[in-house]
């Protein structure tokens, strides 16, 4: 055991702890105000979650030490990760630091580089256009459910390609919301409760087993298509020069893992696919829901977005290559990611006794860091509750000085960040292009911190003359001109 390296000061304990449960009631009742209140007590603050103490880091510079400069002393771990690992195995987000993590990260990194994601861009746009164009004009819709469905559909197209059979897509759409709900329950409850043979625990285990079976079918489908394409490639290429381009068009990012030299076992492939699905959907889904909500509150911001979009696309539908020319859309999305988390509590475990900003942290202690907390720090984000996309202009962004940690940092930094920005921009731009008016039809939503920061209720109606791209199946991909549809109800 190593001794702390510097003289230490006593670590303040957050007020309001109760015997036995510590601050668990605060985390259950008002977690976001509780988290942001900790800053006033010091740069590292002790809280108790039940009988277990945890050290919350409130200074973004110290969080960087935990994630980057001293990462070897703060291993990925903690209660939430343990709970997730039971079902999701050793996927990239839950596997312990070490060789397996490094190897799998290296294998998966190419799936999520910008150039590779760009190859899926137009296919994602087309899928999103179909879904958004199918909403009925004026119907009040559950925004959180819609955004999760769309992010899932776009992600499936990116991961498994464009020709995944419809019944598999449908089963994913049915299963994932229940899986996410069950996962939230598993991470909130004490572990001994989640291990009891209760109906809810059994149902969750059965759903995860069904998801594994479904992923298996998607992998088999993908693998058989790849084998066929490889077997037929030379002949097809000779017969039709566009055949290999068409095959590439249909392919998915998951091909990278299936074709890797350093092959993963079937169980590992399942773990990685589950990890990606659960990591990708709700994070981007909630961000989009909150973005739309802020647009209903700020017509000026919505108008600027629409003008930017029209300036770039004129009257035609979005193409992937447009995304780099929509800086204001990126600012708006970044502000939504800042204001609404979406990650609000992430954990590490101290691998040795260590000094953190003058505080002694004992080996084995849980460390908590919170992007939400840092992103509401008024020292870096004045008036943190204000939705202000202009914080992210090139002139003003430097003032945030490393306090935007929504995607983490260091060796466990979000692997899907590039993908997330692409998907967020595609979905926001498509909704705006399709529907001229967006209206909140529910009461003002409250932010609920579960796995992400989600709205407790949020419905919206989309109105006006719906604009749809021309039938893209008959047009060159991404080159179709616009048509206007009078908003006929979808079948
Ligand atoms: C707004 C969207 C997103 C946010 C805010 C977000 C946030 C994060 C954060 C904070 C971490 C680091 C956790 C830690 O340090 O322990 C993380 C890791 C991860 N994220 Fe994301 N994420 C987003 C979207 C995505 C997407 C779209 C994918 C998949 C394509 C994804 C897949 C992952 C994976 C696999 C990890 C684990 C990386 C590792 O440990 O090596 N995320 N994410």
Description:
There is one protein chain. The protein has 491 residues and is an alpha+beta fold. The protein has a single domain, classed as Orthogonal Bundle (Cytochrome p450), CATH 1.10.630.10. 49% of the residues lie in helices and 11% in strands. It contains 17 helices and 14 strands. It has a five-stranded mixed beta sheet. Strand 10 and strand 11 form a beta hairpin. Helix 13 crosses helix 15. The longest helix has 41 residues. The N terminus and C terminus are likely disordered. The structure holds protoporphyrin IX containing FE. Protoporphyrin IX containing FE binds next to helix 13 and helix 17.
Write the layout of secondary structure elements.
Elements: H1 24-29, H2 31-37, E1 44-49, E2 52-57, H3 60-69, E3 74-76, H4 79-88, H5 99-108, H6 114-133, E4 140-142, H7 143-160, H8 166-188, H9 191-194, H10 199-239, H11 243-250, H12 255-258, H13 266-297, H14 299-313, H15 327-339, E5 346-350, E6 354-356, E7 359-361, E8 366-369, H16 371-374, H17 417-434, E9 437-440, E10 447-449, E11 453-455, E12 459-463, E13 467-469, E14 482-484
Parallel strand pairs: 2-8
Antiparallel strand pairs: 1-2, 3-5, 4-12, 5-8, 6-7, 9-12, 10-11, 13-14
Helix pairs in contact: 4-8, 6-7, 6-17, 7-8, 7-13, 8-10, 10-13, 13-15, 13-17
This protein binds protoporphyrin IX containing FE.
Protoporphyrin IX containing FE (HEM) is lined by residues 76, 92-93, 105, 275-276, 279-280, 283-284, 287, 337, 342-343, 346, 371, 406-408, 412, 414-416, 419-420.
């Amino acid at each position: 055991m190593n001794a702390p390296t510097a003289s230490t000061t006593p670590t303040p304990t957050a007020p309001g702890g109760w015997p036995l449960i510590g601050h668990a009631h605060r985390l259950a009742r008002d977690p976001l105000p509780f988290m942001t209140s900790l800053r006033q007590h010091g740069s590292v603050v002790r809280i108790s979650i039940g009988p277990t103490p945890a050290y919350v880091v409130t200074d973004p510079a110290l969080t960087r030490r935990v994630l980057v400069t001293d990462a070897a002393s703060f291993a990925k771990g903690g209660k939430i990760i343990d709970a997730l690992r039971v079902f999701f195995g050793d996927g990239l987000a839950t596997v312990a630091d070490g060789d397996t993590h490094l190897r799998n990260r290296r294998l998966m990194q190419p799936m999520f580089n910008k150039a590779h994601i760009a190859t899926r861009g137009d296919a994602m746009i087309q899928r999103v256009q179909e879904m958004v164009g199918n909403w009925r004009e004026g119907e009040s819709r559950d925004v959180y459910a819609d955004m999760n469905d769309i992010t899932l559909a776009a992600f499936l197209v990116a991961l498994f390609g464009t020709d995944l059979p419809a019944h598999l897509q449908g089963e994913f759409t049915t299963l994932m919301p229940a899986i996410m709900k069950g996962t939230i329950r598993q991470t909130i409850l004490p572990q001994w409760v989640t291990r009891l043979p209760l109906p809810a625990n059994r149902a969750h285990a059965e759903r995860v087993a069904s998801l594994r079976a479904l992923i298996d079918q998607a992998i088999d489908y993908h693998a058989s298509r790849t084998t066929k394409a490889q077997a037929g490639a030379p002949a097809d290429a000779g017969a039709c020069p566009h055949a290999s381009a068409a095959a590439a068009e249909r392919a998915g990012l998951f091909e990278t893992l299936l074709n890797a030299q350093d092959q993963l076992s079937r169980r590992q492939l399942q773990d990685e696919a589950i990890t990606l699905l659960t990591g990708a959907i709700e994070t981007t889904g909630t961000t989009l829901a909150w973005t739309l909500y802020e647009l209903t509150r700020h017509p000026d911001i919505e108008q600027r977005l629409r003008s930017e979009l029209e300036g770039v696309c004129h009257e035609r539908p979005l193409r992937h290559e447009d995304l780099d020319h929509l800086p204001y859309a990126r600012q708006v999305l970044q502000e939504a990611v800042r204001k609404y988390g979406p990650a609000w509590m992430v954990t590490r475990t101290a691998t040795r006794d260590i000094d953190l900003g003058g505080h002694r942290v004992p080996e084995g202690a849980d460390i908590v860091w919170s992007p939400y907390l840092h992103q509401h720090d008024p020292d870096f984000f004045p008036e943190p509750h204000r939705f202000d996309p202009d914080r992210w202009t090139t002139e003003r962004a430097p003032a945030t000085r490393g306090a935007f940690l929504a995607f983490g940092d260091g060796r466990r930094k979000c692997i899907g960040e590039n993908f997330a920005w692409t998907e967020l921009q595609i979905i926001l731009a498509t909704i705006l292009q399709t529907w001229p008016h967006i209206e909140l039809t529910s009461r003002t939503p409250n932010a609920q911190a579960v796995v992400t920061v989600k709205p407790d209720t949020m419905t919206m109606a989309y109105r006006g003359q719906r604009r749809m791209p021309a039938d893209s199946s008959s047009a060159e991909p991404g080159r179709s001109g616009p048509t206007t549809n009078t908003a006929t109800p979808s079948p």
